[in-house]
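note to self: dont lose this again. the chain is below, predicted strucutre after it. 227 aa total, dont forget to put it in the shared folder this time
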Amino acid sequence: MISTDLNIERPTLTSPQWQVFCASIFLVSIPVFFQAPLVRVAPEVSLLATLGWLVLSFWLWFQAKHRLWGDLLFGFTLSWLAGTLYWGWLRTEPLLHIPVEAIPLPIALFALFFGYFRTGSLFFIGSFLGTCLTDLYCMGAGLMPWWSEMMAVENNDALLSKVLRGAMIQVSAPTSMAIAIGISLLLLAMTAWAIRKREVHWWAFGGAVFSTLLVDALFIATVSLLG
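---
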């Protein structure tokens, strides 16, 4: 069985720590490329898939040699559930984003309190924290109104392009850029702090936090290209 509390001074690139870090980045990226288009056309299917992820995570967790990956997948299941609920039915309401994303948070905290699913729970908490900081940026940069408009016209290419151009102007404002730099540095600092730990579950947290930077950069690049 792979322990989630390994006392390794300097993890190598093939160590469980780095494997979990990279897997966490991958799992945060999945919703961007797969879940996002799925919830737009079939949110019920995405919600049903949550049960499948949960069953798979428990199946892996109860197998000694795969327990670590079942643990991590449990946290991904929580993120998938929250993402489905918000992006499937409430995506035009930016102020509801954090409350809906926080729905699985008590489950993660409960699991941590009793010592279960530490890797998955900290993965979810890292992902949720990254989401909170991204929304903080959107509020500080004045992007919330553009968010609503973007979701409202997502099926109209002409109107969407116009909204994206407006959002890009807002993103390019000096205040917006200053906030983005500050939050990026904070996310990098949290990632560096997490991967200095020896325990694998902190590397899951660090990977989830770091992936926020990648996803946000991808979003800004997409807005620039489409706008």
